[in-house]
Amino acid sequence: MYTPNTFGESIANKPRSAAQNISFLLITLCFTILIATLYEAISIWILLPSVLAVILRFLLYLGLYQHVPSATMLNIIAVLAGGFLIYASTKMALLETMINMLVLASSLKIMVLHTQKDLQAILLSLVFLLGIGFVFHSDLLHLLLYITVLFLLFLTLAAHFAPKQNLAKMNKKVVLICLQALPIALLLFFAIPTLPALWHMPLPKQDTTGLTDTIKPGDIAKLGQSNELAFIATFTEASAVPHYHERYWRSLSVDAFDGVKWFVSNQQKAQQTIVSKTSTLAPKKENVINSSNKSLGKIRKVTYSIQLQKNQSHYAVSLDRPFKVHSEGTQQTFFPTADFAVHSQYPINAVGFYRVESVLHYPLKEHNLDVARYLQLPDNFHAPNAVNDTENLDSTVQHQSTLTKISNPRTQAWVKELSKIHTDRASLIAAFDAYLLAENFRYTLEPELMPNDVIDTFLFDVKSGFCSHYASALGYVLRLAGYPTRLVAGYQGGELLDDNSLSVYQYDAHAWVETYNSEQGWIRLDPTATIAPTRISAGLRDALTQSPAKDTSIFDWDYYSKVGFSQQFSSWLNHLEFGWEKEIARFNQNTDGDLFDDILKKLGINDSITRGFLFLGVMAGIFAIYFYSGLRQKSQPDKVLKQYVKAKKLCLQQYPTLDVQIQKLPPTGFQSWLEGKNTDLAKHMSPITQLIVSHLYMRKSHEEHKAHIGHNELRLHVQALQQYLKQHRH
Amino acid sequence: MHALRQFVQKQHLAWLNKRIPKADTFQLDNQSIFILPTVFGYLFLCVTIFIFLIATNYQSNILRLLSFFLLSLFIVHMFASYLNFSRLYVSLGMIKPIFAGTTAAIPLHILPSKTGTPARGTLWINFMQTQTKQKIRYQSIELDDAENIANVRYFTQTRGIYVLPRMTLQCDYPLGLFRCWTHLQFVQLITVYPSPIASKLHMDEIPQLHSDINSSSLSGKMNEQHEEFAGLNKYQIGDSLHSVAWKQMARTGQMMTKEFSGYVNPKGYLHLPIDTPIEKALGQLSYQINYCQQNNIVYGLFLPHVHIKPGQGEEHQEQCLAALASFPKTAQSILGKH
């Protein structure tokens, strides 16, 4: 009667899983996704064995290949890759070394994946890798991807620990556990205060994205091809979103030019680290409204919050002219600099948040301006009619000019000619603009390479370029003519995300020129506007109809919007991303806009002890709900079981003196005992036993369907048994 | 050291006896379930803490959320593990007697849970063996399988009629972060007959007093060498399978028994010889009983505490062997007391 059960192996050595094990495949899949998202940080020598491992595992699963690499082979790979890792670790950041180590270890394990221990080891390292993945990517799409991977990892475990369960049930179980864990996680997240960084973590050496402190004509063109989000600005209700032509987002000003590139001099760098003294001295409201900058437009105060994507540099963005900067979130400290920009204290390695009060069109006047610095030229050229009001300009210029070769001779000659006719600044600029227009200069994202005398080549040969070409050229021309000038790098434009928010992408990167005037301060000049007015009034996309952005990836929904389909979807995603960054990525207990805090305050709970108890109480409540819903009795009185008990009683009546052991035997056990005692009775009992066994041990899915039939059938059998016993009594 | 370990084991068992008293069926509950994280669970917690540290140092909210999620998953897993294990409802089936030195298959019935939801996952089963130092080997049963009876192997060298040692059940479901286990003491007895030790058949015609047993001798001694084949008879139920003419059967398909001339069907009592150590003597008797049963010899058993009249058949054999197993007590006394 007993059906022998097939047993697995003992725990000590249980190769319960062949190469075809579904959990092995799942974990390999997770591994593949993770290394795909982290490939930038993984060195090629580590990537190679991991790709090998993935291929091997898939082949094993498909049964196309049957040999797991030998221990010797594995050791050779381990030693080679490990040796490389030790060698390279001196150059890599800690986090990168960690990723490479984890990837190497996992790939070696995946090659020989065999036991439960292997699986668990890989799983833990993958969870860890996934965590590190969030340091690199915090956007919504990666988040969704990682959530999927995490779920798959748990599914792998579930598949391993309940191998006979079907996938749908396993899925349900894992989803249930995750959903149960989520409220607790959120509760912990909102209730446990954020700790300050315990120690400084070296950052992965990532390329800085966005602007750099050197501008080589053509450089920004590369950014023009990037669809990455640079920042999102949200304006307060009171301050209307600035017009397109007002959206000049200053990041940094560049003062030195060596003939090839513009760069930030040490003096300028020093200036950028100084917190602007006027930062707290925002102009009084009346002043702001009454006065207006004649040349530029109405002076207006705007307040906006910036959500800045990480760029690994110090440079943040602001509209001219920033007065008050308030850092939000715990990550970064932002401050206004002496050169009218906003910078952060540390490289921006995570999304940064700050609020700025700017006064648009407010004169950018500097005290004690070192004019000489803004007149530096790459070589020994003397401005013919320099209108400098500073003292020893000549010596400074001579000191600066170390180059023996005369750079951009044609431009120099041209400016010499021009300044003879145009003796004031305005007319010189007008002449420059006129030249650009007359010569049909073009605006392009893919400028030609100009290796030597870039400004000469640009102005007289190529006659097409990106904003940095135009800015460089004008800056150089103005300096040649002896007007203090500098370049400003930043972003220009932005798309309306909603009524109050602008999203600015890397392709909005822009460079323009500022020239100093003792009355008005720094005046913005944008030669690009002359050539491509739409660039300024409508943005890059309209200015460049022929060349779409190139640097796109699968995860780049912006690309799709450009391609034209699902514009709606991409804007919806942008909103979602914005909300995600704002609500979760930015969430910070210290800010006053905290929903959780507000609720508690409204309830009148302020002291931390009561809060602590409330927190514990809610936790306990959640657990109690889980627990008791799990324990809840689901079964009603079982009709079928009743019939069986009746039949068993009838049988037992035949043997009044029986020890308790027999009475408590389970159905099959009782049946086999009965067969030993009374074969005839056992024959009658056997169908009843069969029915009760199939009823009791039926899997849930079949139960409802079959229970009804089983009941009727059973009743008939029990009746037959009753009759048989009656006959025998007489 | 050894004494200390024994003392600890003894205390542990005593504590278990109080906590989980023996019974015939068990619905697992908070009295009987033990739960602790597995090694994997502890490592999982370490990873969680590590992620939290990274989250703090990089000031990443998402990472912080992830670490809290992993932590809450860990806690929820504890509840899930416990709930699943508490759905186990088990009892033992009839335990067939075995000979010492062989492995018994103990039928463990997984009954449907009282809550209606069946327990899931892989159940690992083992006996708590305190004496033997051999490595514990677990057997597994998939609770999601259609099968609901696990035949748990039980190996023993000790003859007797006694309760099984505590049965350890454990389960890592659903994700292996926690392990639930229990040590169950079932009331069911196992009868372990003495291991047969080959010996010559020793029989006495009439049961005598102890002093006389030695003198009365080998009258019913079997002598296989002197058998002579005499012919075939039709097989009847009860005939020894030893005497079935298998070759004949293969040819004709009819079951015949070989008849031997000079074959005397001896009758008599098996008894304990005096000069042999008691366990060896019991083993020899066990062998002789089997031999008699196989060869259709009518035999009785004469032990100091129990006299079983000559007879034949499986029930008779079981009775005799049980008497050997329970020596020096009677099987009835043990079963009755129980």
UniProtKB/TrEMBL annotation, chain A:
The chain crosses the membrane at residues 21-39, 45-64, 71-88, 94-112, 119-137, 143-162, 174-199, 612-631. Keywords: Membrane, Transmembrane, Transmembrane helix. Residues 459-529 form the Transglutaminase-like domain. InterPro entries: Bact_TGase-like (IPR052901), Papain-like_cys_pep_sf (IPR038765), TgpA_N (IPR021878), Transglutaminase-like (IPR002931). SUPFAM superfamilies: Cysteine proteinases (SSF54001). This is DUF3488 and transglutaminase-like domain-containing protein. It comes from Opacimonas viscosa.
